[in-house]
């Protein structure tokens, strides 16, 4: 159960990246339209409207991110769910304001309903409303129910969240220090997005003097003009613009002489990425596992930066991360923003001295000092790169879902131990993370993560053949004969009957992915007698059956039987 919960949080963190990606353009428009710059109301309002509707945008983005195939229908369902739930809440109690959480919950609900009902088949006279069209309908009705439930239970929950947020805000430098430390430590698991979104979009409230709307969260409050906004953002600038680039210099200076030329280009690229955009994971994963002591010190230094900037009453916010570009965009609304520069310069010295001393004193195997070449990648075309990644991940048949956040590929796999860390690092990966005990795998590849994920999805075989000639050539599997109903019924009985099958899909043309209500009702002996070549149990009641080239026809026959049973039960 714990593992399932953690995997759910990781999926939420990945889904949050889609709506967050639009914030930089919103901040740019808002800032350019301000009176102290271009003073153009149209541009200012164009940015303002995005911030004013963040909850709706999050509902749409999270729903699409949670949908297994990222279909836009889930986004439509998320919007409907949010609008219906908020309207229901206002009827019950006009004082209830769920803010960003309403968008997040609506998105999660819509994504889950999409995955459950996207293939539903209704009776012929209702066939038009079947499949994906059914999802927004189901979401609307479900949102009414959720609205009623939250209308009854939300006031004390809202009071608790407000109290905790207020406590964190009033704790000043101590709260900022704790946030900064855990913000870095949670990067290892990918759960830092959850912490960030609580601080940046939920905690604290402020009434926008321009629109009169109540905004929540450190980020939204800062850009609405709250003088206290930025408490959980300002300290990122000294670390990202000054500290980590200085750490790159220290690691370069301590690299082996024969490796410096190669590592110099890599460290320069990492340092510029952190300096300009605030994307730090390429640097952090370069030493996180090779020198854990350094990473712990880095987390503590980040917390100290948050505490110091708060103590000096520096308030400077960002829309994406703490890089130089965001610093320029948010500068006009800052309080004592110029103090970031001397603090940052001091941090550059501190980071360089700390990294240089620790590397020399403890002989830490940072990049360039170890025997294994880290981050030196071959030059490949997009098609070759996708194929190489598929091969390094254990082949197409080993991949269940392929996703990405800002800097990582987030994968669900049949057997994650088949992934080759050395091959992935030879392709340019900074690190390979195996969170928990399930089939989750995270590959840190830097800002190109989403592009690489798209390339892999496009290169995945659609008919049982490895479609990437640059890696391996396999003959196309022969088309299997349709599975007759009597045979499919035997398979269904071995799976515990139609009531036990919650969801099924054909994966990589050789396997069937099932979600069962009760895994104990499955009969392994009967399945093997029917020709099942292998079984694999995953968390959350998910099973994989290896059945060979008849997987597609068998899954279609099973799905028809399950749907027929559901329709009969309704009639």
TrEMBL record:
Keyword list, A-Z: Cell membrane, Kinase, Membrane, Phosphotransferase system, Sugar transport, Transferase, Transmembrane, Transmembrane helix, Transport
PTS EIIB type-1 domain mapped to chain residues: 383-466, 485-568
Gene Ontology process terms (BP): N-acetylglucosamine transport; phosphoenolpyruvate-dependent sugar phosphotransferase system
Signal peptide range in chain numbering: none
SUPFAM superfamilies (UniProt xref): Glucose permease domain IIB (SSF55604)
One Pfam family per UniProt: PTS_EIIB
InterPro entries linked to this entry: Glu_permease_IIB, PTrfase_EIIB_Cys, PTS_EIIC, PTS_EIIC_1, PTS_Glucose_EIICBA, PTS_IIB_1, PTS_IIBC_nag
Membrane among keywords: yes
Membrane topology note: Multi-pass membrane protein
Active site, per annotation: 405 (phosphocysteine intermediate)
GO-annotated cellular components: organelle inner membrane; plasma membrane
Tree of life domain: Bacteria
Localization in the cell: Cell membrane
Keyword Metal-binding attributed: no
Recorded GO MF terms: kinase activity; N-acetylglucosamine transmembrane transporter activity; protein-N(PI)-phosphohistidine-sugar phosphotransferase activity; protein-phosphocysteine-sugar phosphotransferase activity
Transmembrane regions listed in the UniProt entry: 12-30, 50-67, 74-92, 98-114, 134-155, 167-187, 199-220, 232-250, 262-279, 338-359
Name this protein carries in UniProt: PTS N-acetyl-D-glucosamine transporter
Source organism of this protein record: Pseudomonas brassicacearum
């Amino acid at each position: 159960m714990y593992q399932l919960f953690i995997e759910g949080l990781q999926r939420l963190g990945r889904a949050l990246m889609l709506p967050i990606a639009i914030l930089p353009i919103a901040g740019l428009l808002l800032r350019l339209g301000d009176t102290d710059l271009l003073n153009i109301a149209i541009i200012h309002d164009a940015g303002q409207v995005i911030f004013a509707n963040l909850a709706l945008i999050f509902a749409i983005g999270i729903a699409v991110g949670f949908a297994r195939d990222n279909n836009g229908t889930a986004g439509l369902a998320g919007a409907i769910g949010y609008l219906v739930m908020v309207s229901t809440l206002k009827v019950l109690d006009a004082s209830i304001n769920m803010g960003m959480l309403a968008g997040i919950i609506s998105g999660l609900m819509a994504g889950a309903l999409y995955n459950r009902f996207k293939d539903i088949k209704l009776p012929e006279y209702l066939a038009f409303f079947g499949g994906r069209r059914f999802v927004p309908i189901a979401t609307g009705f479900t949102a009414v129910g959720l609205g009623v439930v939250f209308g009854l239970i939300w006031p004390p929950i809202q009071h608790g969240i407000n109290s905790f947020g207020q406590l964190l805000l009033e704790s000043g430098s101590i709260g900022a220090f704790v946030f900064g430390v855990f913000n870095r430590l949670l990067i290892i698991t990918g759960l830092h997005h959850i912490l960030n979104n609580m601080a940046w979009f939920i905690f604290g409230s402020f009434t926008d003097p321009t629109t009169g709307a109540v905004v929540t969260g450190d980020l939204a409050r800062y850009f609405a003009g709250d003088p206290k906004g930025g408490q959980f953002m300002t300290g990122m600038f000294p670390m990202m613009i000054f500290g980590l680039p200085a750490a790159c210099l220290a690691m370069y200076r301590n690299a082996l002489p024969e490796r410096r030329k190669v590592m110099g280009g890599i460290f320069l690229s990492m340092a510029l990425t952190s300096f300009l955009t605030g994307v730090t994971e390429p640097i952090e994963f370069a030493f996180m596992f090779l020198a854990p002591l350094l990473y712990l010190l880095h987390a503590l230094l980040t917390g100290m930066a948050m505490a110091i900037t708060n103590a000096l009453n520096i308030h400077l916010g960002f829309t994406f991360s703490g890089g130089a570009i965001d610093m320029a965009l948010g500068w006009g609304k800052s309080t004592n923003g110029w103090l970031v520069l001397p603090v940052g310069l001091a941090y550059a010295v501190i980071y360089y001295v700390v990294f240089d001393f620790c590397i020399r004193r403890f002989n830490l195997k940072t990049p360039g000092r170890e025997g294994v070449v880290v981050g030196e990648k071959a030059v490949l075309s997009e098609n070759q790169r996708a194929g190489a990644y598929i091969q390094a991940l254990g082949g197409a048949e080993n991949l269940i879902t392929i996703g990405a956040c800002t800097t990582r590929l987030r994968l669900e796999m049949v057997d994650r131990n088949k992934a080759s860390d050395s091959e992935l690092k030879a392709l340019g990966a900074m690190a390979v993370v195996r969170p928990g005990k399930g089939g989750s795998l995270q590959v840190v590849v830097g800002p190109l993560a989403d592009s690489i994920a798209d390339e892999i999805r496009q290169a995945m075989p659609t008919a049982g053949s490895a479609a990437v000639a640059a890696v391996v050539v396999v003959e196309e599997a022969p088309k299997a004969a349709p599975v007759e109903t009597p045979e499919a019924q035997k398979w269904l009985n071995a799976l515990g009957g139609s009531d036990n099958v919650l969801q099924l899909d054909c994966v990589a043309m050789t396997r069937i992915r099932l979600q069962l209500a009760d895994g104990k009702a499955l009969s392994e002996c009967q399945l093997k007698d029917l020709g099942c070549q292998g079984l694999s149990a995953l968390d959350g009641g998910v099973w994989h059956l290896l059945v060979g080239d008849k997987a597609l026809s068998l899954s279609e026959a099973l799905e028809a039987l399950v749907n027929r049973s559901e329709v009969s039960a309704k009639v």
